[in-house]
Amino acid sequence: xxxxxxxxxxxxxxxxxxxxxxxxxxxxxxxxxxxxxxxxxxxxxxxxxxxxxxxxxxxxxxxxxxxxxxxxxxxxxxxxxx
Amino acid sequence: xxxxxxxxxxxxxxxxxxxxxxxxxxxxxxxxxxxxxxxxxxxxxxxxxxxxxxxxxxxxxxxxxxxxxxxxxxxxxxxxxxxxxxxxxxxxxxxxxxxxxxxxxxxxxxxxxxxxxxxxxxxxxxxxxxxxxxxxxxxxxxxxxxxxxxxxxxxxxxxxxxxxxxxxxxxxxxxxxxxxxxxxxxxxxxxxxxxxxxxxxxxxxxxxxxxxxxxxxxxxxxxxxxxxxxxxxxxxxxxxxxxxxxxxxxxxxxxxxxxxxxxxxxxxxxxxxxxxxxxxxxxxxxxxxxxxxxxxxxxxxxxxxxxxxxxxxxxxxxxxxxxxxxxxxxxxxxxxxxxxxxxxxxxxxxxxxxxxxxxxxxxxxxxxxxxxxxxxxxxxxxxxxxxxxxxxxxxxxxxxxxxxxxxxxxxxxxxxxxxxxxxxxxxxxxxxxxxxxxxxxxxxxxxxxxxxxxxxxxxxxxxxxxxxxxxxxxxxxxxxxxxxxxxxxxxxxxxxxxxxxxxxxxxxxxxxxxxxxxxxxxxxxxxxxxxxxxxxxxxxxxxxxxxxxxxxxxxxxxxxxxxxxxxxxxxxxxxxxxxxxxxxxxxxxxxxxxxxxxxxxxxxxxxxxxxxx
Lengths: 82, 613
Known about the structure:
The complex is a heterodimer of chains A (82) and B (613). The longest helix of chain A is centred in the middle third of the chain and has 15 residues. Chain A has one domain: ACP-like (Non-ribosomal Peptide Synthetase Peptidyl Carrier Protein, Chain A, Orthogonal Bundle). With 82 residues, chain A is mostly helical. In chain A, helix 1 crosses helix 5. Chain A starts with a helix and ends with a helix. Chain A is built from 5 helices and no strands. Chain B has 613 residues and is α/β, with parallel strands linked by helices. Chain B folds into 3 domains: 266 residues, ANL, N-terminal domain (Rossmann fold); 124 residues, Luciferase, domain 3 (Roll); 129 residues, GMP Synthetase, Chain A, domain 3 (2-Layer Sandwich). Helix content of chain B is 32%, strand content 23%. Chain B has 19 helices and 27 strands. Chain B has a 5-stranded mixed beta sheet with strand order 11-12-13-14-17. A 4-stranded mixed beta sheet of chain B has the order 2-1-10-9, with helices on both faces. Chain B has a 4-stranded parallel beta sheet with strand order 4-3-5-6, with helices on both faces. Chain B is globular and about 70 Å long.
């Protein structure tokens, strides 16, 4: 399993509690659209991601993040900076 | 936090000195609760003491300390830098209102330079860059802003917005600080000048800037400090509220400064991620005053868990609730979970206000618990009267409505409740709430049409809210118009409709957005959409796209209901009738047409009422 596949599966695990409709999570899944979670829950999820990887994700980066694959890139980018 | 303006001793470095927050009180300087001629005069006074602003990181570390003394020195220097950037007296300076020393320094720099600061939102949603850029561009344009000051991480967003709006000067906080200081002596705003413009009013497509004068901010902060909160030397405020909203800006930045009160801040996104940290920092600082919409108390109570026992919230004397429907169940949950930390439920305080009256209009009695008036739902709906519910009726929650009693107006301000024909109403008659007094805005900036629409000839302003009198106190029942309230934010339905109508093949007039009361008393957002598609899979794809664009635009989860073409009602003048659409939906006349609809959204409260009739 590559590093990014690893990150992807971790993100899917963290997303699972928010996936109330139980749709199948894929790299191209749009986090806000396909899961239809509200802004407060999104921040909950972002916090989980930040805590898990011990990184900070600024709002401006978040506003350009749509799919899980986008988020994988963001997480790996932030990890590389630490 | 991306503030690099504050350097050296103020910034906690790896091996720098340990930061200490500013103290509760000034040991020597006498406490003066507002009443200074201007904001700058208030800061001149506060700068003689040692209190000020403290900023905590998302992980609870003290990152910046900005005593009022330091703030004044930096603001005066920044005034000269603004002037050397070519800005002329009275021009508008947009400032991205992050919770940071940078924002405060530039805001007060404008006060000393005679420039009009316009705090801009920085809130964004996942995937929401485009919506944010167009929102900011709309505000810059309406304000005819000459400059926008931002943090470096937002440069691509704000740069794009400034280009659309034609804003000439775009500088990061750092770039502004690198400017030379003008030799021209800054001339601060005087007593008859304006103070700032606030842009949280109006829809995204047509933002309205609330123009607040020095006289208004002086009157309102004085009312808040003296009549409303009755500030003493022992008070210390805490806030995670956004500084581009009146409650954050006036309530927890300008008022404390005008009363030399120390404030501890965490940013709004930090709060959203770690709501329990709010309570921990309040406990550490022995904070006495904090405000939040109901949902904030809800989030914190749910997240605190076992940590509650380690906290000491016994100093917290004003837990203000504002910005949305006050929910008794949430307050009860919070008080129950935090009683172990010494939190006193009597600290909950209801109040009423809006940006158009600077911030505050009324405060309830601080020493008494929140007063709830339980009325008969049927009379409320049909007769516009708030008839107290009988004990028997109270046993069926669906047949009553609970309203919070919000208190009396601050000194020098008047409220009237008027009927549809303009007649003054008496106790328990529900009508339009109008207000008058020195805190009222000068008007909407360069928008006389919108200003005239709310101002009446006798000097009263229509708040757009409905309510009634109860023994000399005002009770607010809801909005007269279609505004949606969600987690303490006002959402304009036309913003949601406009966003939805950008999706192919929808056209203007194809969407109707409104709120229905959810199980918990909060607003649930429903969007009815004309659907001309026949293929079920395509219909679901349309639903998904609309939900996504609404989320990216407004940050709300909504129920998208696909309805038959031409089924939405229109008024005789050809405008979409939101009220008609909502009535038709609740009555079951306008319904979902997709065979794959996952869970057809059913309104709860109103349906139950009909069943009970």
